[in-house]
Write a structure and sequence with these properties.
Radius of gyration: 18 Å
CATH class: Alpha Beta
Order of helices and strands: HHEEEEE
Structural class: alpha+beta
Number of helices: 2
């Protein structure tokens, strides 16, 4: 019985690891340059936002499915246009190629 539990746990862990290699990578690069209003229309109201003293803002939205939840954080420049994003889930982080200046 003990060996069966170990085999089952190992199998579940291995499935989780292989899923991380096969997961589809979301592309948020087309949102770079979009206004915050445009992203709110597309994604809904963000769960939280932070305004930087040096100008600009970062807002976070939940994305993914209940079995693979993640968040997308979009940073906006002083004018209010998206200039970079970060996607986070339990597999790790992904970042936009372009960064805010």
């Amino acid at each position: 019985m003990f060996h069966l539990r170990i085999v089952l746990i190992t199998s579940l862990f291995a499935c989780g690891c292989s899923a991380s290699l096969d997961r589809e990578t979301p592309s948020w690069d087309e949102g770079i340059g979009a206004s915050k209003d445009d992203l709110v229309k597309k994604l809904g109201v963000p769960t939280r936002c932070h305004t930087f003293k040096s100008a600009g803002e970062a807002c976070e939205w939940p994305v993914g499915s209940p079995s693979q939840p993640g968040t997308i954080t979009v940073q906006f420049d002083a004018v209010g246009n998206a200039c970079q994003w970060t996607y986070r889930d339990h597999f790790g982080d992904m970042r936009s190629r372009r960064q805010c200046s």
